[in-house]
Amino acid sequence: MPPWMEVIEAREETQMNQVTEALTIAMADWVSMAVQQLDQERMDLFNRCVATEGADIRVVVCLREGAVLLEATNMVAGTRFELFREDVEPLRPADYVGHRGEGGRQSDIALRIKEVDMRYINSIPRKLPEGRVLVHNRVRPARPLGTGGFRAWTQIKDDTIEPCRCNFAGHPNAKLHKHYKVKLDV
Ligand SMILES: [Zn+2]
Hints:
Layout: H1 3-10, H2 13-35, H3 40-51, E1 55-62, E2 67-74, E3 79-87, H4 93-97, H5 105-116, E4 119-121, E5 132-136, E6 152-156, E7 161-164, E8 179-182
Parallel strand pairs: 5-8
Antiparallel strand pairs: 1-2, 2-3, 4-6, 5-6, 7-8
Bound molecules: zinc ion (ZN).
Protein backbone atom coordinates (compact mmCIF):
# COMPACT_ATOMS: atom_id res chain seq x y z
CA MET A 1 0.00 0.00 0.00
CA PRO A 2 1.50 3.40 -0.96
CA PRO A 3 2.15 5.75 1.99
CA TRP A 4 -0.57 8.25 0.99
CA MET A 5 -3.17 5.48 1.14
CA GLU A 6 -2.18 4.76 4.71
CA VAL A 7 -2.52 8.46 5.57
CA ILE A 8 -6.03 8.53 4.15
CA GLU A 9 -6.97 5.30 5.91
CA ALA A 10 -5.67 6.67 9.18
CA ARG A 11 -7.95 9.71 8.98
CA GLU A 12 -11.14 9.64 10.93
CA GLU A 13 -13.99 8.83 8.62
CA THR A 14 -16.01 11.85 9.74
CA GLN A 15 -13.19 14.18 8.80
CA MET A 16 -12.96 12.52 5.39
CA ASN A 17 -16.69 13.06 4.96
CA GLN A 18 -16.41 16.72 5.92
CA VAL A 19 -13.64 17.29 3.39
CA THR A 20 -15.67 15.52 0.70
CA GLU A 21 -18.66 17.69 1.60
CA ALA A 22 -16.53 20.84 1.46
CA LEU A 23 -15.13 19.72 -1.90
CA THR A 24 -18.63 19.16 -3.28
CA ILE A 25 -19.74 22.59 -2.11
CA ALA A 26 -16.63 24.28 -3.49
CA MET A 27 -17.21 22.46 -6.78
CA ALA A 28 -20.83 23.66 -6.98
CA ASP A 29 -19.57 27.22 -6.38
CA TRP A 30 -16.88 26.79 -9.02
CA VAL A 31 -19.31 25.39 -11.62
CA SER A 32 -21.79 28.24 -11.08
CA MET A 33 -18.99 30.78 -11.62
CA ALA A 34 -17.54 28.91 -14.62
CA VAL A 35 -20.96 28.68 -16.28
CA GLN A 36 -21.31 32.47 -16.10
CA GLN A 37 -18.22 32.79 -18.27
CA LEU A 38 -19.39 30.50 -21.07
CA ASP A 39 -20.24 31.97 -24.45
CA GLN A 40 -23.63 31.18 -26.01
CA GLU A 41 -22.39 28.19 -27.99
CA ARG A 42 -20.82 26.55 -24.94
CA MET A 43 -23.83 27.43 -22.82
CA ASP A 44 -26.08 25.64 -25.35
CA LEU A 45 -23.80 22.60 -25.20
CA PHE A 46 -23.89 22.70 -21.40
CA ASN A 47 -27.70 22.80 -21.38
CA ARG A 48 -27.95 20.01 -23.99
CA CYS A 49 -25.62 17.90 -21.88
CA VAL A 50 -27.78 18.30 -18.80
CA ALA A 51 -30.84 17.10 -20.73
CA THR A 52 -29.34 14.33 -22.91
CA GLU A 53 -29.31 10.64 -21.97
CA GLY A 54 -25.74 9.36 -21.64
CA ALA A 55 -24.29 12.87 -21.47
CA ASP A 56 -22.84 14.47 -18.39
CA ILE A 57 -20.98 17.49 -17.07
CA ARG A 58 -17.70 16.76 -15.37
CA VAL A 59 -15.34 18.80 -13.26
CA VAL A 60 -11.88 17.40 -13.82
CA VAL A 61 -8.96 18.37 -11.63
CA CYS A 62 -5.61 17.71 -13.31
CA LEU A 63 -3.26 17.61 -10.35
CA ARG A 64 0.07 17.42 -12.16
CA GLU A 65 -0.90 19.63 -15.06
CA GLY A 66 -2.39 22.19 -12.69
CA ALA A 67 -5.82 22.81 -14.20
CA VAL A 68 -9.48 22.57 -13.31
CA LEU A 69 -11.69 21.72 -16.28
CA LEU A 70 -15.40 21.83 -16.93
CA GLU A 71 -16.13 19.14 -19.49
CA ALA A 72 -19.18 18.10 -21.46
CA THR A 73 -19.03 14.36 -22.05
CA ASN A 74 -21.17 11.83 -23.85
CA MET A 75 -20.46 8.23 -22.91
CA VAL A 76 -22.64 6.87 -25.72
CA ALA A 77 -21.00 8.91 -28.46
CA GLY A 78 -17.59 8.70 -26.74
CA THR A 79 -17.08 12.46 -26.99
CA ARG A 80 -15.50 14.92 -24.59
CA PHE A 81 -15.50 18.67 -24.96
CA GLU A 82 -13.71 21.19 -22.78
CA LEU A 83 -16.16 23.98 -21.87
CA PHE A 84 -13.98 25.94 -19.47
CA ARG A 85 -10.48 25.76 -18.04
CA GLU A 86 -8.83 27.47 -15.13
CA ASP A 87 -5.12 27.00 -14.64
CA VAL A 88 -4.00 26.45 -11.07
CA GLU A 89 -0.73 25.74 -9.36
CA PRO A 90 0.31 22.10 -9.99
CA LEU A 91 0.52 19.94 -6.90
CA ARG A 92 3.94 18.72 -5.90
CA PRO A 93 4.35 15.01 -5.09
CA ALA A 94 4.80 15.98 -1.40
CA ASP A 95 1.24 17.39 -1.36
CA TYR A 96 -0.21 13.91 -1.84
CA VAL A 97 1.50 12.57 1.24
CA GLY A 98 0.25 15.60 3.17
CA HIS A 99 1.25 14.69 6.71
CA ARG A 100 -1.29 16.28 8.97
CA GLY A 101 -0.44 19.83 9.92
CA GLU A 102 2.85 19.88 8.03
CA GLY A 103 1.72 21.81 5.00
CA GLY A 104 0.25 20.48 1.79
CA ARG A 105 -3.12 21.82 0.67
CA GLN A 106 -5.05 18.68 1.44
CA SER A 107 -4.20 18.82 5.13
CA ASP A 108 -4.62 22.62 5.25
CA ILE A 109 -8.25 22.32 4.19
CA ALA A 110 -8.90 19.42 6.54
CA LEU A 111 -7.24 21.27 9.36
CA ARG A 112 -9.26 24.46 8.80
CA ILE A 113 -12.54 22.57 8.77
CA LYS A 114 -11.55 20.95 12.02
CA GLU A 115 -10.41 24.23 13.59
CA VAL A 116 -13.63 26.13 12.92
CA ASP A 117 -15.68 22.98 13.58
CA MET A 118 -18.07 23.36 10.61
CA ARG A 119 -21.41 21.64 11.15
CA TYR A 120 -23.87 21.61 8.28
CA ILE A 121 -27.52 22.32 9.06
CA ASN A 122 -30.76 21.34 7.31
CA SER A 123 -32.72 24.18 8.89
CA ILE A 124 -31.86 27.31 10.85
CA PRO A 125 -32.27 26.82 14.60
CA ARG A 126 -33.93 29.50 16.78
CA LYS A 127 -30.91 29.54 19.04
CA LEU A 128 -27.29 28.97 18.01
CA PRO A 129 -24.89 27.04 20.21
CA GLU A 130 -22.65 29.27 22.36
CA GLY A 131 -19.66 30.68 20.46
CA ARG A 132 -20.91 29.66 17.02
CA VAL A 133 -22.08 31.75 14.07
CA LEU A 134 -24.40 31.07 11.14
CA VAL A 135 -22.70 30.94 7.73
CA HIS A 136 -23.74 30.20 4.14
CA ASN A 137 -21.73 29.62 0.97
CA ARG A 138 -21.62 31.96 -2.04
CA VAL A 139 -24.24 30.18 -4.09
CA ARG A 140 -27.45 32.19 -4.71
CA PRO A 141 -29.62 31.79 -1.58
CA ALA A 142 -32.53 29.39 -2.11
CA ARG A 143 -35.04 27.31 -0.20
CA PRO A 144 -34.86 24.61 1.08
CA LEU A 145 -31.18 24.41 2.02
CA GLY A 146 -29.26 22.44 -0.58
CA THR A 147 -31.24 23.89 -3.51
CA GLY A 148 -28.86 24.76 -6.33
CA GLY A 149 -25.92 24.04 -4.04
CA PHE A 150 -26.92 26.63 -1.41
CA ARG A 151 -25.67 25.27 1.92
CA ALA A 152 -25.47 26.63 5.44
CA TRP A 153 -23.64 25.62 8.57
CA THR A 154 -22.55 26.86 11.97
CA GLN A 155 -18.93 27.33 12.88
CA ILE A 156 -16.55 29.14 15.20
CA LYS A 157 -15.95 32.61 13.72
CA ASP A 158 -12.67 33.06 11.83
CA ASP A 159 -11.29 35.38 9.14
CA THR A 160 -12.54 33.31 6.18
CA ILE A 161 -16.08 34.67 6.56
CA GLU A 162 -17.64 38.14 6.32
CA PRO A 163 -20.96 39.62 7.48
CA CYS A 164 -23.83 39.17 5.00
CA ARG A 165 -26.98 41.27 4.76
CA CYS A 166 -29.10 39.07 2.49
CA ASN A 167 -32.48 37.77 3.67
CA PHE A 168 -31.25 34.15 3.55
CA ALA A 169 -33.92 33.39 0.90
CA GLY A 170 -36.53 33.97 3.62
CA HIS A 171 -35.62 30.84 5.57
CA PRO A 172 -37.51 30.50 8.87
CA ASN A 173 -35.51 31.85 11.85
CA ALA A 174 -32.94 33.53 9.57
CA LYS A 175 -33.89 36.97 10.90
CA LEU A 176 -33.09 35.90 14.45
CA HIS A 177 -29.35 35.84 13.76
CA LYS A 178 -26.64 38.04 12.35
CA HIS A 179 -25.12 35.82 9.65
CA TYR A 180 -21.99 35.48 7.55
CA LYS A 181 -20.93 34.29 4.11
CA VAL A 182 -17.66 32.83 2.90
CA LYS A 183 -15.20 35.47 1.65
CA LEU A 184 -14.56 35.36 -2.08
CA ASP A 185 -10.83 34.63 -2.00
CA VAL A 186 -10.83 31.89 0.54
ZN1 LIG B 1 -26.61 36.06 3.53
